[in-house]
Amino acid sequence: MTDVTVTDFAWTSADLPSLRQQLLDLFCQVAYKEGDFLLSSGQRSTYYINGKQVTLHPQGSVGVGRILLPLIPATTIGVAGLTLGADPIVSATSAVGVYENRSLTPLIVRKEAKGHGTQAYIEGPTLPEGSPVVVLEDVVTTGQSAMKAVERLRGAGYQVEQIITLVDRQQGGAEFYAAQGLKFDAVFTIADLQAHWQKLHA
Predict the structure, then answer these.
(1) Which residues does the annotation say bind 5-phospho-alpha-D-ribose 1-diphosphate (predicted)?
(2) Does residue 114 have a known ligand-binding role?
(3) 169 annotated as belonging to a binding site for a ligand
(4) Was 145 annotated as part of a binding site?
(5) Cβ-based neighbours of 5, under 8 Å, separated by 6 or more
């Protein structure tokens, strides 16, 4: 689905409040669905958010990178996330950073070590030990997926203190991260998406 307002919008130059609103529109148009769904957490839900419909969208990926970049501390050297959901987010944020004169090395964290070659958990350039890395995620439910990335990255010697997600389903993830001493930020909450979706379908 390609909405004319999506292609006509100035994704690369619009101010951030306008960009955030356009990104919310896109989430509600292509990513948010209602029905009966089984989540990766094992929970059942009456709605589902397929974040990849936005993060792999040509304009959406630019919007994601531009919205996330200001949330990442200036001292950060790398951005990382658990494959597959975080892959396009990490790449988009790193690429957008170049245009803002920020160098953020993208790192992809495997769920299991590959069975050949270096058998690495983390793909991407090797950073110096102690490098600050922020973990990015598309949708957070219980918080377990991004936590796997945090643990792998810390095991590789990186400093990870923050997780940023595009959507917080508000089902325990924020509380879990707080208990782990991690800073947690979300661009949208599920309440934001559902309120806007209802408005669009009224």
Answers:
(1) 110-111, 114, 116, 137-145
(2) yes
(3) yes
(4) yes
(5) 22, 25
∠ CA 75-81-83, nearest 5°, is: 160
Residue 142 is assigned to a ligand binding site: yes
- Does 33 carry a binding-site annotation? no
Q: What is the pTM of this model?
A: 0.94
User: Would you say 138 is a known binding-site residue?
Assistant: yes
Per-residue DSSP letter, 138: E
CATH number of the domain to which 93 belongs:
3.40.50.2020
Q: Walk along the chain (202 residues) and give the pLDDT tens digit of each residue.
A: 445 478 899 999 999 999 999 999 999 999 999 999 998 778 889 999 999 999 999 999 999 999 999 999 999 999 999 999 999 999 999 999 999 999 999 999 998 876 554 558 999 999 999 999 999 999 999 999 999 999 999 999 999 999 999 999 999 999 999 999 999 999 999 999 999 999 998 8
Does 199 appear as a known binding residue?
no
CA–CA dist 124, 149 (Å, integer): 14
139 is in an annotated binding site: yes
Question: Domain span at residue 8?
Answer: 4-200
